[in-house]
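Readers outside the structure-tokenisation community will struggle with the description of the input data as it stands. Showing the layout once, in full, would remove most of the difficulty. For illustration, here is how one protein appears when written out as sequence plus structure tokens:
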Amino acid sequence: MKRLSLLIILLVLGGCGILGFGVMDRLYGPEDRGRFDQPQKPLGEGQTVDFREQVKPILDSRCVACHACYDAPCQLQLGSYEGITRGANRERVYNATRLFASQPTRLFLDADNNREWRQRGFFPVLNERKQDTATNLSASVMAQMLALKQEVPGPGQGLLPDQSFDFSLDRPQVCPALEGWSDYRQSHPDWGMPFGLPPLTASESATLMRWLEQGAPPSPELPAHPKTEARVASMETFLNGKSLKEQLMARYLYEHWFLAHLYFEDDKDRTFFELVRSATPPGQPIRVVATRRPYDDPGVPVVYYRLRPVKATLVAKTHMPYALGDERLRRIKAWFLDDPYPVTALPGYDPKSAANPFITFREIPASARYRLLLENAQFTVMGFIKGPSCRGQTALNVIDDHFWVGFVSPDSPQFQSASKFLSEALTQISLPSAQQSNAFFTPWLVYSRQQNDYLQRKSAYLNKLLTGQWRPTLNELWDGDGQNRNAALTIFRHFDSASVEKGLLGGHPQKALIVGFEVLERIHYLLVAGFDVFGNLPHQLESRLYMDFLRMEAEQIVLTLLPRESRKTVRDHWYRDASDDVLAYLNGARSYFNAETGMTFRTQDPLSELYDAWAAQLAPILDHSHDYSLRDAGAANFDELNRLGSTRGRSLQYLPENAVLTVVGPHGKEQFFSLIRNSAHSNIAGLFNESDRRLPDEDTLYVARGFIGAYPNVMYRITEDQLPDFVTGVQKLGSAADYTKFAERFAIRRTHPDFWQHYDRLIAAYRAASPIEAGVLDLSRYENR
């Protein structure tokens, strides 16, 4: 009888995933979904573990590397207390098969408390049942995950077994709630947290378990510094003026800054803020107006623009700092308020017109809007790169792996003459975002006809305006007003992520873009303001497909700088093996820009000449922070790094896209370099079958001082005397098996006993080198090979 009773108990405990909440209620008491909506007092005896001082540093250094932002596994975000108490959700944010838009689940926006998050499908990872120290551990999924890792830490070297671990970007989400924990433990005993990485130290684990045992209490809120409060009050006054001109300006700023991490230049503590719309005015607690897009109808009579502190840990994949200071605000005021243009009425929020900034903000001079976008162009472009639209290979295969970006000068007479006409013409052009989040597939040819019509009007107007006398040269390029390093940018794509850096980096790129106001503004409203990460499949695909037209328009400006007879050759090289639809579009578009260049070329390779002239033209303002020098690296290292950076061709295809190399000197001094593999393609005008368009013989490698990329695929650590062998090893890679041997010697693999110590040093160096821009590097795409 005793054996039968014991068996029944074991079956009940082991089968919780099947029997469900009734068993949980009997074991741990009923659920209290609002438990963490109220202040928590620590339970148990002894000193209280402080969340801010003791717990959060561990979470930031060990957990946030995977659990942050939209691509956090199971939407579990561990960078803030609110994210932890919210818990997890099995629904994917990034879903390539979604036929209907899903309900947004943005932390700090779409729900005000945990009861609301439970209604939206989130389940707790902390104990929300009976409050005692034992139950706080046994009824906490987080505690069970940490304990499982301590029990089954995994191998201390070599590779993790592929049959047990899936690190692919779209791997199935296995998200055990409390009632399913027993099944999870039995099926995946080696899936404790951190997943697929070394366990926490005994001390780190003990600290977290003690905090969980005490009921996971928060730390008291810290009061804002009086100087910070004064800065915020001044900025909110500026953003909430009463005149029509001030209100229109504030709306424009919000729709372009809503993803920014704003900070005040004279704030030594570097407090970051986000700009939100609130139903309450300055001086009152913020009541956020949460809409899918920043230009959606707020649904309140009056909207106020407020600064709210960023609570979550800063992560490199979303951190976009934007400085506010007296000089910047003076310039904004001069562009938007002092200019004597009239504002006769405020625009509404009808989706079709609100999605088109050339309608909404038609009364603000184009020069003012363009100046704002250019002044911090890296931030503007970063919105396309770090915003929610750019996640995954399908979203990013619309751009080359390596290209330069320049900008049409706002002082160009041609820009000033044409901007009003072109802005008016664009009021007739629709973007896919006008269909909102539940779009229907619109044929590619429909958008191509609209774009072609626009290009015809643009060409006809410019030809009439210029009467054949003007010839384009690099003088039409914005030079940063002689001091702004945002005038030249380089973008690197890392297959399923990307980076944007100041300067013309990496030698001659695969391609280049010169962007004018009309393209820059449309890209922002296509991929940033107008993109809904929770939208359906047609919405997301059409946004990706439409970007082809905008990229081609910017490419066309580059081509106009080349001799007329060479343009087709260059363009055809960029679009080798493109589809008939794409070629037909290009063949039609090329005739619209038929004026001869004003530049002089002396070789049979005018594109290379153009690149050299471009770099020379902007030399005074080019950023060189990623250059390594003979003095810093040392003669031997300098030569070897140059040999590594000159590597070309097929051996590179076996390297990861984005790696961090640490070179240790004889006295332990560490130097950090980013290795960026640039994968060549015959063209990037196709949505699918990217591997069929790969040209590994044309791959290149860029070696940069410091840190580029938010998702390192691997970390290498070598001594100076190993550097020659490392470079030779890269150049001799001929197979996947070769790379496995290479990584065994030089890589910090997922199982490496010093993995976390090396990662900590790397993050510390990143923050020391870039204290404003740095954030936690994401490990969700770290390789296992």
Observations:
- The two ends are 53 Å apart (CA to CA).
- Residues 1-19 have pLDDT under 50 and may be disordered.
- Residues 26 and 99 are 40 Å apart (CA to CA).
